[in-house]
Amino acid sequence: MMKNGKSIFAVLTTIALIVCLLGCQEGPVERAGKKIDKAVEDIKK
Prior knowledge:
By secondary structure, the chain is mainly α. It has helices at 2-24, 28-44.
């Protein structure tokens, strides 16, 4: 029974790490937002 608990814990920990790493990466939407922000700043000048 304890072995199953350790396996479940290991799987959940791995999934949490993967989600965290994917969430921390800059995606295409983030890059597009930065480009829009830069364009707005350039227009204001």
